[in-house]
Amino acid sequence: MQSLFLSNDEKDKKEYIKIIEQTAEAVCDAFDSSSAYSGPEPEELRKDIHLDSILPDNGLGWERVLELTKQKILPNMLRTPSTDYMPHLHGPAVLESLASELIISAYNQSMDSWDQAPVATEIEVEVIRHLCALYNLGQQADGVFTSGGSQSNQTAIILARDWYCSEILKFDVKKYGLPEQFKKLRMYTSEISHFSMEKSAHILGLGYESVVKIPVDSKKRMDTTVLKKRIAQDIAEGNLPFLVVGTVGTTDFGSIDPLFEIAAVCKEHNIWFHADAAYGSGVILSDAYKNRVAGLELCDSITVDFHKMFLLPISCSAVLVKNAADFDALTIHADYLNREEDEEDGYINLVDKSLQTTRRFDALKVWMSFLCRGKDGWSEIITKSMENASYLYTLLKKNQRFSVITEPEITSVVFRFVSGTEKDDDINRAVRRTLLHKHGIVVGQTVADGNVCLKFTLLNPLMTHKKLEQLISVIQAEGEKLI
């Protein structure tokens, strides 16, 4: 039988090294262009990857499978490290984090109990401790790694709901389920916040109607004047405001809600304050711009994503809370997993504060990359991307062929090719697809103020001003062909 696993057997070690080296070589060979995409449209791509069966009667063996991977998959993978890739809030992964992924997959630890991941558990606890200090959450703070921003937000909403029901309504949700007045619970977030707010409300049995969407101002920030009025109105109507979510980096615009003002409202009404900083949490590492996220320390919980501005591989996120005791809402003991007797003897079982049971050792990526780059390295990376966004905004403002929606606060720039005709929506849609399939340039598309727009999400610090100028020239040329 061919080798199954990496072990202490020399034959297995040699096979592992061979497979990893061959894979690394194949990946490097597939980076044969500076473009982000090779170009196939959906139907062509489906035809290219088709196989009669992916479970043959007789296995093909490693060499043949590697060849098929090289033929069908690697040439068509998006090359996220390319400066032609900028559609969404994920981008390239720094090299040392690729090494951490190799370690994570080889050892295959699960983060639910200490006996499944001894050193991994202790490293996650250590990383969380440093993250709580980074965001100045105080000595009682804690956190846990999650699959991404949606799960971090959902966790925070659960903790906020249970805290409110326990502390304000004096009702034990964990034991009895939702209280009779659950239909009166209200959470507030901006009208352009992440869709995980509604999805979480649905999953938790509160429904979309429990999510009160607050309008944004011209800078795409939550209008706190309206927030105050809506909370007062709900209280007068007998509803139960339990949570306000401030967005620190909206998905499209990168706008940052006024954290100090929201914190004051939450304090006045005894409401949980959560910051969805999945995008903007990285700004704290920029010496030049960290003041833009001042106020995060006032939050009861924070979502932090490391597969966005921190440039780590998907998936890697965490939810941090100011009061570690709030995680009790998620704790339940099982004799086969997180025995109370072990915990009394100092064994930490992270499943006690996680929605997931089986979970990857994602904290290693943060540990290695933070140590490798240091404060100075990360400040340079994040500052460069934010400065690129500022430069692009200035560039577009000078060009009459473009309109820009709002000045960027982080690294997202939403803009629109303008022809002066009624075809602008269609032109912008067509330009995006032309860029993707003809030029291998991948940009985002969204709707702002009712108009179809293009979006650059500038997370790659290798982007240059010259390259931005070239990209805008290509967009302008393709747009003008369609007038």
Automatic annotation (TrEMBL):
The keyword Lyase applies. GO terms for molecular function: carboxy-lyase activity; pyridoxal phosphate binding. InterPro entries: Aromatic_deC, PyrdxlP-dep_de-COase, PyrdxlP-dep_Trfase, PyrdxlP-dep_Trfase_major, Pyridoxal-P_BS. Its cofactor is pyridoxal 5'-phosphate. The modification N6-(pyridoxal phosphate)lysine is found at K308. GO terms for cellular component: cytoplasm. Keywords: Decarboxylase, Lyase, Pyridoxal phosphate. GO terms for biological process: amino acid metabolic process; carboxylic acid metabolic process. It comes from the Bacteria. Gene3D superfamilies: 3.90.1150.170, Type I PLP-dependent aspartate aminotransferase-like (Major domain). It holds the Pfam family Pyridoxal_deC. Belongs to the group II decarboxylase family. This is L-2,4-diaminobutyrate decarboxylase. It comes from Treponema porcinum. The lineage of its organism: Bacteria, Pseudomonadati, Spirochaetota, Spirochaetia, Spirochaetales.
